[in-house]
TrEMBL record:
Gene3D superfamilies assigned: NADP-dependent oxidoreductase domain
A Pfam match: Aldo_ket_red
Organism: Simplicispira metamorpha
All copies of domain NADP-dependent oxidoreductase, residue ranges: 15-344
SUPFAM superfamilies xref list: NAD(P)-linked oxidoreductase (SSF51430)
TM stretches of this protein: none
Listed name of the protein: Aryl-alcohol dehydrogenase-like predicted oxidoreductase
InterPro entries: AKR_Detox_Biosynth, NAD(P)_OxRdtase_dom_sf, NADP_OxRdtase_dom
GO terms assigned for molecular function: oxidoreductase activity
Keyword field: Oxidoreductase
Length: 353
């Protein structure tokens, strides 16, 4: 895999990124270290984590994933220099008071979170530091519509950028990014950065997969024109696009044991747990099989080959899953198959938005 630049930054990453939010919950530390090592051996130079991981978020596992990665760095001298390391500062609490108190996310919060991530990751610098979700109220995580009556913003975007600029100036962060953002948010971060000589966002990390292509509803144009790269997360639709729930559903007695969406009520209550999302996934999974592909191969190849996507974030719980996801690289989708994908979307929309 050739590396590609992220936005206007000097970061060059592989088009596949190893996501790590399962480390410390579904994946034990020893297994996580094996996955990290195999990923590096197979040429992936990009890993993504967050201060709030592992998922599902709990007070006793907050920061666990970064700690596991930091211990792997300590055990593998030289690995840190081979990798582009991305992590995230959590947005407002969203019911997680162990991350921060109150509805806002102050400049001091951003700095304190960065310091904590640096300690846990056992590194001196974070290559890409992202705001995990916006400080202001936005339609995300299953919320479809913007409602100005729910606005609780306390820290202006300019102030957030100034805090991030301080971290860049101090040499603790190289570049910055966003996550779960809207077209307005991306434009405003770029506008203010250019107006005030502050760091420019290089990336936005948003959901993008067959059952959620909402990124293509204007945000793709914004990012293309502004030079902001998409890091696509949940390319397998939280497991729905692997086919493992096609027969059983996510709550049935025969549902796979230990799978994320089958295990965590909070996830089922959001976008991935909607009956419409599973129904659409079954259609795409059947289409994959009809063309001689596994459902996962189709879903991953869709992301791997789209012009909108700079790097696709894969989350795995085993070496076998990692190898399967990496082996899907190079899979091509015919114009006929792409047209059939678009026809299903035209009919069913984006049910996991």
């Amino acid at each position: 895999m050739k590396t590609i630049p992220l936005g206007h930054s000097d970061l060059h990453v592989t088009p596949i990124c190893l996501g790590t939010m399962t480390f410390g919950e579904q994946v034990a530390e020893a297994d996580a270290h094996a996955i990290l090592s195999r990923s590096l051996e197979r040429g992936v130079n990009f890993i993504d984590t967050a201060e709030m991981y592992a998922v599902p978020a709990r007070a006793d596992t907050c920061g666990a994933t970064e700690t596991i990665i930091g211990r792997w760095f300590a055990k593998n001298p030289g690995a840190r220099q081979k990798l582009v390391l991305a992590t995230k500062v959590a947005g407002p609490s969203r019911g997680m008071p162990w991350i921060r108190q109150g509805a806002g996310m102050t400049a001091a919060d951003i700095v304190a979170s960065c310091e904590g991530s640096l300690r846990r990751l056992q590194t001196d610098v974070i290559d890409l530091y992202q705001i995990h979700w916006p400080e202001r109220h936005v339609p995300a995580f299953g919320i479809k519509y913007y409602d100005p009556a729910k606005e609780t913003t306390q820290t202006p975007i300019h102030e957030q950028l100034q805090a991030l600029a301080g971290l860049v100036k101090a040499g603790k962060v190289r570049h910055i990014g966003l996550s779960n953002e809207t077209p307005y948010g991306v434009h405003e971060f770029v506008r203010l950065a250019e107006q005030h000589g502050l760091p420019r966002v290089a990336t936005v990390q948003n959901p993008y997969c067959l059952i959620n292509r909402s990124y293509e509803n204007a945000l793709d144009e914004s990012c293309h024109r502004l030079g902001v790269s998409l890091l696509a997360y949940s390319p397998l639709g939280f497991g729905l696009l692997t086919g493992k729930y096609d027969a059983s559903g996510i709550d049935g007695p025969d549902a796979p044991q230990g799978a994320r969406i089958a295990s965590y009520a909070s996830v089922r209550q959001q976008r991935w747990g909607r009956p419409e999302a599973l129904a659409a996934a079954r259609r795409y999974n059947a289409l994959a099989r009809a063309h001689g592909l596994t459902p996962a191969q189709l879903a991953l190849a869709f992301c791997y080959t789209k012009w909108q996507v700079s790097s696709t974030i894969i989350g795995v719980t085993s070496l076998a899953q990692l190898d399967d996801d990496l082996d899907a690289w190079g899979t091509t989708l015919s114009p006929e198959l792409l047209a059939q994908i678009d026809a299903i979307r035209w009919e069913l929309g984006d049910p996991a938005i």
